[in-house]
Design a protein that fits this description.
Strand content of chain B: 25-35%
CATH class of chain A: Mainly Alpha
Distance between the termini of chain B: 50 Å
Helix content of chain B: 25-40%
Radius of gyration of chain B: 21 Å
Number of domains of chain A: 1
CATH architecture of the largest domain in chain B: 2-Layer Sandwich
CATH class of the largest domain in chain B: Alpha Beta
Number of domains of chain B: 2
Strand order of the largest sheet of chain B: 1-2-3-4-5
Structural class of chain B: alpha+beta
Largest sheet of chain B: 5 strands, antiparallel
Number of helices of chain B: 4
Oligomer: heterodimer
CATH architecture of chain A: Up-down Bundle
Helix content of chain A: over 70%
Number of strands of chain B: 9
């Protein structure tokens, strides 16, 4: 058999398996991300059945997956929402960053990993998974709840903060000096401000490039523009992911709505490929020694994330139960943590970071949704009532 | 009415009723609408919610809109001294079932004007004399107290 035949068989088999896993995940009401990671672990280096031919496909697919994850995130938010949130919830964002990024950084330094890995791990523990959390809110019918805008605005701030964090990380991992790091950060800040300004004032200008009435041309055009900008951003070390995010923000109105509908299936495919690829690149054998540290890190940073949400909800005048729902609901980490770990590992920073991040995301993404349900239990409600009665 | 943005998802509108319950409508950007009732014990949580299709939302808006218009008409009572507005049902035994509005000669006999007919959740404003009444219609009428009493008897078929 030649390579192409083998590629079809391997990729086809894996995608079919992932489809079945995804179906199982939705039946028991959990996110498919941990299952995709596990599938990748099983077929990767040192896994049960290592793949041979499919790996190149998964490598390229994963790169596109990250870009699509980010452009969709950008399409979901309008520039108005981003700026409005930045004004309203800047304090909550800063508290969130301090409480959740610092434990990650401290943990990396404790393990003796050096400053670059510390910055990477800080990012891994900082950012909650908007995808997983949006799904939890929907599944638990909490979209109408009063604390939901508080949760969402924290997610928005985190996502926006990534536009500055990722270029900084990209510069650091390629071993650029302080000057080079400052330069890329400056480019990123300038790019974000220009894009936000352009989207706010001349949002229609960029969108007129495309027409929502021609789906095929729209799909190719938006995908092309996104990959082009992502590639150019990568060229100047500003991180491809951020370039894609900015394209998403710059496109607005009906074009954004149609583009996100068209890109959704592609995003689902390539994001799944991305999670599998990350699992593929990680040796399950390496996860054993880092499992306990990952568990410790998960316990600490899930506690700090809960505190973040609790405080933000209290400031917004939400009652006790709602504060817990906000805090516990924000605990799952997901796609971004893997994206960050992927950038660091891809550049050869600390080989243990990949297995640690994998284990960490697996733990939080499985336990987070379960913890989110706790405030709905009779036990929890009775406890809150008793507390209120004695207070 | 309170409005809250849900970044990435849509908008939520809240209404707090006089009885202290909060009802909210979440308009998802995807076009879905979700109607949620709030928990009595927990002011921040919804105890139940349901998704509405376009048709369902439209039907609900129609019903609520018709009764809203009625409420405004009732408000006339306070503004125009001496005039009052009442809703008079056309019962199945009324002599005017399946007859035209003009046949009642309500205005000349009682001085009362029929300003609207409410039928199956729809409001028919300013009905013409050719409109035919059915059992179950509700007539919104404006007139003086004595005229109104006469009108009610007329529609019920008690006028002799």
């Amino acid at each position: 058999m030649n390579d192409t035949t083998m590629l079809l068989i391997e990729v086809g088999g894996l995608l079919l398996g992932m489809g079945m896993l995804g179906r199982m995940a939705s039946r028991i009401g959990m996110s498919p991300i941990p299952l995709y990671l596990l599938a990748g672990l099983a077929f990767g280096h040192g896994g049960l059945v290592p793949l041979s031919a499919g790996e190149d496909f998964f490598e390229v697919g994963a790169e596109i997956g990250v870009i699509l994850l980010l452009v969709m995130l950008g399409l979901e938010y309008s520039a108005d929402e981003l700026v409005g949130n930045l004004r309203k919830s800047a304090l909550a964002g800063v508290v969130d960053g301090l409480l959740n990024a610092l434990p990650g950084a401290a943990f990396a330094l404790l393990l003796g990993w050096g400053p670059v890995a510390a910055v990477a791990l800080a990012g891994v523990t900082w950012v909650s998974s908007s995808g997983v959390i949006a799904k939890i809110l929907r599944d638990l019918r909490r979209m109408g709840n009063r604390e939901t805008p508080v949760m969402l605005s924290i997610l928005v701030i985190e996502d926006l903060a990534m536009a500055f964090y990722l270029p900084l990380l990209t510069a650091l991992v390629i071993g650029a000096g302080l000057v080079e790091g400052a330069r890329t950060l400056l480019i990123a800040v300038a790019a974000v401000l220009v894009i936000l300004y352009a989207a706010l004032r001349h949002g229609h200008a960029i969108s007129t490039l495309f027409s929502p009435r021609e789906p095929e041309a729209l799909l190719l055009g938006v995908l092309g523009l996104t990959m082009l900008v992502a590639g150019l951003a990568d060229r100047v070390n500003v991180s491809a992911a951020v370039g894609a995010f900015l394209v998403g923000i710059a496109i607005s109105g009906p074009v954004a709505h149609h583009a996100s509908e068209l890109l959704m299936p592609l995003r689902d495919l390539f994001a799944a490929v991305f999670f599998v690829f990350f699992g593929l690149a990680t040796d399950p054998g390496e996860m054993v020694p880092v499992f306990l540290p990952a568990l410790g890190l998960a316990v600490v940073t899930m506690a700090t994330k809960t505190l973040t949400g609790y405080l933000a909800a209290r400031r917004a005048g939400i009652a006790v139960s709602g504060r817990w729902r906000t805090g516990l609901g924000l605990t799952p980490r997901g796609e971004f943590s893997i994206v960050i770990a992927g950038i660091a590992v891809g550049a050869g920073v600390e080989s243990q970071l990949a297995p640690l991040a994998t284990a960490y995301v697996l733990i939080t993404v499985v336990s987070g949704p379960l913890l989110s349900r706790v405030p709905d239990t009779a036990w929890f409600k009775a406890r809150v009532r008793r507390r209120a009665a004695t207070a | 009415m309170e409005k809250a943005d849900l970044p990435g998802i849509g908008v939520r509108h809240d209404v707090v009723t006089a009885s202290g319950r909060r009802i909210s409508v979440v308009s998802h950007r995807s076009g879905e609408r979700e109607l949620a009732f709030f928990d009595r014990d927990d002011p921040d949580a919804c105890s139940d919610s349901t998704f509405l299709t376009d048709d369902e939302a439209e039907a609900l808006a129609d019903v609520l809109g018709a009764s809203l218009m009625l409420g405004e008409l009732v408000g006339l009572r306070e503004r125009a001294a001496g005039l009052l507005t009442e809703q008079v049902a056309v019962r199945a035994d009324s002599p005017y079932v399946n007859r035209r509005l003009g046949d009642t000669e309500a205005r000349s006999r009682t001085g009362v004007s029929i300003v609207a007919v409410l039928r199956e959740g729809d409001a028919i404003p300013s009905p013409g004399p050719e409109i035919v009444f059915s059992a179950g219609d509700t007539l919104v009428a404006v007139g003086t107290r004595s005229g109104m009493d006469a009108f009610i008897r007329l529609i019920a078929g008690d006028s002799g």
